[in-house]
UniProtKB/TrEMBL annotation:
This is Response regulator. Gene3D superfamilies: 3.40.50.2300. Residues 145-210 form the HTH luxR-type domain. PANTHER family: TRANSCRIPTIONAL REGULATORY PROTEIN NARL-RELATED, TWO-COMPONENT RESPONSE REGULATOR. SUPFAM superfamilies: C-terminal effector domain of the bipartite response regulators, CheY-like. It holds the Pfam family GerE. Residues 3-118 form the Response regulatory domain. The modification 4-aspartylphosphate is found at D54. The lineage of its organism: Bacteria, Bacillati, Actinomycetota, Actinomycetes, Pseudonocardiales. It comes from Haloechinothrix salitolerans. Keywords: DNA-binding, Phosphoprotein, Transcription, Transcription regulation.
Length: 216
């Protein structure tokens, strides 16, 4: 079973998410929280697989709650937001979130995202994540030394650049004329060499080092 903690300051939102997730045979909503403080406490108490985290909440916002949960290695965090260009979401991604969804995401996509994050993958949508990064990564230039990428081979840099554009392994395989298994191996090596948790962190790093640029 995939154990989930729901975090949202609006009870009606939590009810809606619980109905969707509770109908799945492989998902168990083990707790709910209405603010970030409670989210951190319940994540530690229940050790869920995924915390579905709202951003704007009283007492402690979702950004700081995400940082604390990820730092404690108690769960993976999937951020929810009402706005697809919410300035707080980029901070949450940098804090270790494994992706984010809009609150009006269709139920089947929500379930897919929960399962993906629980399995160790990340939710990286070209239509949402890249637009957020395009807007909130400093357009004046890279914010991290690109030398951190020197550990990668040329092919691995190519793969990372395509991951940053939001391409799936299948799409990258078609673009580089490789097998999907080979691409998966390259992605795994990129994450290992750069000490990254998942594809979301890889996207952030690619932007911060200038390998990927807003609008490109």
């Amino acid at each position: 079973m995939i154990r989930v903690v729901l975090v949202d300051d609006q009870e009606l939102m939590r009810v809606g998410f619980r109905m969707v997730l509770g109908a799945q045979p492989d998902i168990d909503v083990v707790a709910e929280a209405g603010d970030g403080d409670a989210a951190v406490r319940l994540a530690k108490q229940h050790q869920p697989d995924v915390v579905l985290m709202d951003i704007r909440m009283p007492n402690l916002d979702g950004v700081e709650a995400t940082r604390r949960i990820v730092a404690a290695d108690t769960a993976r965090v999937l951020v929810m937001t009402t706005f697809d260009l919410d300035e707080y979401v980029y901070s949450a991604l940098r804090g270790g979130a494994s992706g984010f969804l809009l609150k009006d995401t269709p139920p089947d996509e929500l379930v897919f995202a929960i399962r993906s994050v629980a399995s160790g993958d990340a939710v990286v949508s070209p239509s949402i994540t890249r637009r957020l990064l395009d807007r909130f990564v400093d357009s004046a230039g890279p914010t991290r030394d690109s030398a951190v990428l020197d550990v990668l081979t040329e092919r691995e840099r190519e793969v990372l650049a395509l991951v940053a554009r939001g391409l799936s392994n299948t799409e990258i395989a078609g673009k580089l004329y490789l097998s999907e298994a080979t691409v998966k191996t390259h992605v795994g090596r990129v994450l290992t060499k750069l000490d990254l948790r998942d594809r979301v962190q890889a996207v952030v790093l690619a932007y911060e080092t200038g390998l990927a640029r807003p609008g490109v």
